[in-house]
Design goal:
- The complex is a heterodimer of chains A (339) and B (543).
- Chain A is an alpha+beta fold and 339 residues long.
- Chain A is built from 7 helices and 10 strands.
- Chain A has a 5-stranded mixed sheet with strand order 3-2-1-5-8. In chain A, strands 4-10-9 form a 3-stranded mixed sheet. Chain A has a two-stranded antiparallel ribbon with strand order 6-7.
- In chain A, helix 1 packs antiparallel against helix 2, helix 2 packs antiparallel against helix 3 and helix 5 crosses helix 7.
- The longest helix of chain A has 34 residues.
- Chain A starts with 12 loop residues before the first helix and ends with a helix.
- The N terminus of chain A is likely disordered.
- Chain B has 543 residues and is an all-alpha fold.
- In chain B, helix 3 packs across helix 8 and helix 9 packs antiparallel against helix 10.
- The model of chain B has no long low-confidence stretch (mean pLDDT 95).
- Classes of the chains: A alpha+beta (339), B mainly alpha (543).
- Chains A and B meet through helix 2, helix 3 and strand 9 of A and helix 3, helix 8, helix 9, helix 10 and helix 11 of B.
Amino acid sequence: MWPPPQHPLRMPAPVRRKLLFACLSLAALALVLAGAAAAGNGGVAPPAETPQAHRIQDIYWVLLGVTGVIFVLVEGALILFVARFRNAGRPRDAEGPQIRGHTRLELLWTAIPVLILAGIITVVFYKLPGIQDIPAATSDGSSKMTINVEGRQFYWRYVYPNGAVSINELRLPVGTPVKLVITAPTTDVNHSWWVPSLAGKMDAIPGKTNHLEFVSPSSPGVFVGQCAEFCGIQHAMMLTRVRVVEPSEYRAYLATQLQVNADVGRMTFEGACAPCHGMKGEGLIGPSLQGNSTLADPQRLKDLLENGKGKMPPVGKDWSQHELAALQSYLKETFAGGG
Amino acid sequence: VAVRAETAYPVPWYRGRVASWITTVDHKRIGILYLVTCLVFFGAGGILALLMRTQLAHPDENFLTRDSYNEVMTVHGVTMVFLVVVPILAGFGNYLVPLMIGARDVAFPRLNALSYWLFLFGGLVLFASFFAPDGPAKTGWTIYPPLSEQQPGIGVDLLILSLHILSVSSLVGAINFVVTIHRLRAPGMTWMRVPLFVWSIDVYAALLIVVLPALSAGLTLLLLDRQVGTHFFDPAQGGNAVLFQHVFWFFGHPEVYVMILPVMGIISEIIPVFARKPIFGYTAIAFSTVAIGFYSLLVWAHHMFAVGLATPLLGFFMISSMIIAVPTGIKILNWLATTWRGNLIFDTPMLFALGFIALFTIGGLSGIFLAAFPFDWQAHDSYFVVAHLHYVLFGGSMFGIFAGLYYWWPKMFGRMLDETLGKWHFWLLFIGFNLTFFPQHLLGLEGMPRRIYTYSNDSWEPSNLISTIGSYVMGAAILVFVINVLWTRRRAGVRAGNDPWLGDTLEWYTTSPPPPHNFDKVPYVTSARPLRDLRRRLAERRV
């Protein structure tokens, strides 16, 4: 008799047992793997060195746990059904039971995902204040500092509260709440500031002011990142690093950055010029700087830096006087034979 | 002496071997033109992908120059979206919709031909831009201003022209599908008896009609900014660069569902046939298609979580994006339930369909990660997103498209594709795909942004190298497919009868390939599985 008289939704008992066993063992395996990865702290999760990045990482682990279980259940069922209900020599036209649906079951597997997703959304909103709202001061008294970040083709320019400037390398004192004000010049293009260990990314968009806040790590270290929004030919070379140092070192750094000296000049050259003219000024996308006559003429150089020319973007637009001076003397020293 | 008289019918020029393809308005021939053209573009886009993977195999590699990498990356994206997945589904729709609903042709055959030829020339404009001064667009397929407004030369303008032509092509095709499905169904084919693939094409077409005008508007503003001197998106003159992102993604996210819904329709046709069962929850699948289509219009800003949106907006777009997971999950569970207690036959179409479920599940789950916006702040524009979108668009769409090709090939050409080569194709592609794209999740989590032409970070090398090796395995799999096609076309293909798979839907009622008029007589449709009804009635009569 076909179809065989059987409850349409009831699997034979041995199949049910095997199914349960397979699903549970797969789930256990996934949990063990997730646990091992969590204990090893990293490799399969976004890195985190600040409380804010840690909370994002917490959300990630919740997501990985929930979706991991769903993954195991769905793929497990798929593999199990493929193995259990394979043709295995039956005639091609032998039909399975003509089950067209099951309203209660379908309602159930509509409702359960809704609940799971509601749970995820709750976790996100529970963690969100700890990611977005940064204390004005930490318990040891360091108060929030604001640093302006400009994304430019193809370097990052950091302006500190005292007017000091650094290119590509941001220095921060340990354990301090930081507010980055992220912009791009209106003549530039979109960029995105991203140092994964410290925080999520935030776009630098011409004509828009964005904010990103985090509490800097409590011990010194160097954290790397790079531009995450495609910004043109040297997007891949738009790297940045954040060097977290002791407060005394930080203050000393700010003081030296305000001077016109060779270090500031070299930093500016390596950040703003080298991506297109080469680390030794040998020419790459832009022409070689060796013996270039523009370098010896302060006014022409200033015009070029501020307005760009042809393919060269206005890299030096709105620079402060000491940056310009430091770069000019560095270029003159290095490429135009001094004097 | 008997003289053999030559019966010299004058064959008009438009019946010639080549001219008949150029002048055709037959939906089946246009469908085949679409499929073949798309597969050629797929080959071209795939070669571009292999070039990129070769460049990224090692740190500081010099295989491609910076400019070429950016061009290749842009054209690869545009090709795969606009010249492969969307039009190949139009190709399936063209070939199958009239056959599945028992119609003689589409509602507007001439418009249908217009739609194909616009598509072909739109695609040629894109590839011709490689020869333009300063080369093609180097902006990524998203063509965000201000970068796209600052690129010199005419590459970006040609890209805009190409997309404009393709939009008109898709729009014309979409209107044709909607009218055909709503007006030309066989007697007895009520909405609850319409094949699920046809449901999905209906939603596909409706979505295109709603969102393509947004793309056209955005592109026109961009073109005006570039050529006429307006400042819609130019921040230096008070324009708003973020506006373009809103317009683009209002089109762009529904476009993602345009690329996956018909594939889900293909899967919903194939799994029941190879499980020898009816689809589980026909109504749920049909209406989840409509629900996905509707919600896809409300999720666009999840592509913009890092541009600095207000928190309530972030919350709204997270919740709406998560809601889409529900109807998607329903479909996956319904397909699984369809295989339950079936008589599963693992012919190549079924392998690809099951592969689709396995891979699309991963892509769907990583989508939930990205919808949770704080995590997206880490993963956005990283290789995690590249992995996610390829699990959806390759592991999802392309696997489903291959399932459809193997399934309907005998109907289109009268010969089966080879099963052994088909299985090699599937397993190579499945393994190669996971090798290529699974490690990219990890790269994204480690901080590798997308769209970089090189990297110096040695710790990213192992994953990148595995990914590149996987991409070569995928290339080999596609070669196996090409060999399969050529070999079975030439000689070895087994002739297919009308109904080699014991299908459920009306296209299997007619000959393979079908005559120009499709059916001599269309049976009255009594359920969603008219062919099974016929077979059963025949069997009962014999008894």
